[in-house]
Amino acid sequence: MAFTRATGKHRRPSKTRRATAGAAGIAGLATVGVVGSIASPAFAAGGGQGQNNLQQSPQLREALAAPISDTLDEQAYDQALRAEQAKAESEAKEEAAKAKAEAKRKADEAKRKAAAEKAQKEHEAKVRAARAAERAKLNAYVLPVEGSYVSTGYQQGGGMWSSGSHTGIDFHAGMNTPVHSVAAGEVVEAGNGGAYGNNIVIKHKDGTYTQYGHLNSIGVSVGQSVKSGQQIALSGSTGNSSGPHLHFEARSGPEYGSDIDPVAYLRQHGLKV
């Protein structure tokens, strides 16, 4: 079987070759026909033997074989073409599968990066929020006694005060009620304060001071840093006091006589008094 290949592709046997094969078959038959005419007396005389000799003639076999060879050539060509097409289709499918897998990998990687970036941004936002909340808490002001009210006002007159008027305000509080620092600061006094009984004085970051008097017990010491809202003592009735309460003062300095309006001071820092 013979077939030709050109530039890597199978090609169907040319018309010239098929025509040549057909011509050769016809020529062979013609020759056989001539020989048969000449030898007809011999066939007549020899009977079957002459017919047998004609069937075994090489020319006849060649003429009969030519179209069979051409058909086999066509079959070989078709088989090779189908094999090449199947190979091309297989390679195309493999490339498509690789491209699909690569596209999925890139998509998954992009999704993973996006998720990681989102998580990182959310984490950073939470950290910033926590820091801001901490700063706000450090700079916040609170009332010294939770859920209380002012029972005696600022500069209220009377014989109970040596200066002739109240230098602070009194918050209603029973015995051993928790007392809190109104803001962050440093303790500059903690102990007996004469008429104030057990008292605490705290210097704050803005340069102002606050004082807490008539305490039953003290929970901080001089030089200690305190946070806004930190419990520093328990209320009581020590010193010049007619009963348990908290005496609270706002001051421009650490000493007695530097008092400022505590209600205005607390309101200035956003508190309702």
UniProtKB/TrEMBL annotation:
Domain M23ase beta-sheet core: 165-258
Species whose genome carries this gene: Streptomyces diacarni
Ranges annotated as spanning the membrane: none
Start-end of Basic residues biased regions: 7-18
SUPFAM superfamilies: Duplicated hybrid motif (SSF51261)
Name of this protein: M23 family peptidase
CDD domains: M23_peptidase
GO terms of molecular function: metalloendopeptidase activity
